[in-house]
Design goal:
Layout (H helix, E strand, L loop, with lengths): L1 E6 L2 E6 L5 H23 L5 H19 L9 H16 L5 H25 L14 H18 L1 H7 L2 E9 L2 E9 L14 E5 H4 L8 H4 L4 H9 L8 E8 L2 E9 L3 E4 L2 E2 L4 E5 L11 E2 L1
Parallel strand pairs: 4-11, 5-10
Antiparallel strand pairs: 1-2, 3-4, 3-8, 5-11, 6-7, 7-10, 8-9
Helix pairs in contact: 1-2, 1-4, 1-6, 2-3, 3-4, 4-5, 5-6
Length: 293
């Protein structure tokens, strides 16, 4: 609503905006959620949607505070940066590359903000100096499209890695458990020719916690035959280990030491009958994952 007041030769324009708090909260929560989700995909980290919802709720609550009567520091630059940091910790806390996730989140948010401005200008809805920006569905869709294109262009290499689905994996044996990140590779067709069970490949170092201390040297052995022989000699492990044949690029035939754990969970769901093959080498250069399933 706009009011024009005349006082002598002076004209005063008084404008007032109506802001619906529930709509503002819902809109910002949806936007923040998708920005966090986009950031996670760019960084190639396991998707934790529940945490993104919590972080998005924090961002939406802050957006509501900025339009309510109160201190102006809620809208200050340092406050915005601190808020983004808290949101990143909630969403990505515990990841190996938390700082990278934070920077990408800032970049994605900046790209989206620029896309909203550009899309609104193209749609003929400029909003200079507005406290609250009413965004139409058309502008939102166009903005997300522009944001996705910009992020894909700038982070092309990271986006390519993000296409690989990373999931949490937990293995347990004789009361011991260990958890790590696994890459879900649709091209992995490794299986046990005897039982027909699927076989995942994991770094031996990631599985050391579920074995007794004296098994560490054998687990890291580059010779799979000696590893199976040594590990099968341990009490309680006699029938757990076997050799799995495999072929890969540059290797026409090879063997991997594999074992049958008591249980395996992938993404929180138990995988019955899955065997785990050991490799003494690292599976990813940056340590993004420790197993391939």
């Amino acid at each position: 609503m706009q009011l024009t007041i005349s006082a002598g030769d002076q004209l005063y324009n008084l404008s007032m905006e109506t802001v619906y708090v529930d709509s503002l909260f819902a809109l910002n929560m949806i936007i923040d959620y998708f920005l966090l989700l986009c950031s996670a995909k760019v960084c190639g980290v396991p998707l934790r949607r529940g945490r993104y919802v919590l972080a998005a709720a924090l961002g939406a609550a802050w957006a509501v505070l900025t339009v309510l009567p109160g201190p102006a520091y809620f809208s200050s630059g340092p406050m915005k940066l601190a808020l983004a940091g808290f949101m990143a910790v909630i969403a990505f806390g515990g990841e190996r590359k938390l700082l990278r996730c934070f920077v990408v989140f800032l970049a994605v948010s900046a790209a989206f903000g620029g896309a909203v401005w550009a899309a609104s200008m193209l749609a003929g809805n400029p909003f200079p100096g507005r406290l609250y920006i009413p965004v139409s569905l058309r502008v939102l869709v166009l903005s997300f499209a522009l944001c996705y294109c910009a992020v894909s262009l700038v982070f092309r290499r990271a986006a390519k890695k993000a296409e690989q689905e990373l999931v949490g994996m937990t293995a347990g044996m004789q009361g011991r458990t260990t958890a790590f990140t696994a890459l879900r590779d649709t091209g992995n067709s490794l299986f046990d020719p005897i039982s027909g069970c699927a076989v995942a490949v994991a770094e031996a170092s990631a599985l050391i916690p579920i074995f007794p201390p004296e098994a560490a040297e054998a687990l890291l052995s580059p010779d799979p035959s000696k590893a199976v022989e040594s590990l099968s000699a341990l009490p309680g492990y006699e029938s757990r280990f076997r050799l799995i044949p495999y072929s890969a690029v540059g290797t026409s035939y090879g063997l991997l030491a594999a074992f049958r754990p008591d249980f395996v969970e992938i993404g929180g769901a138990e995988q019955k009958g899955l065997l785990i093959a050991l490799t003494p080498s690292h599976l990813s250069e940056g340590g993004e994952y420790s197993a391939i399933i």
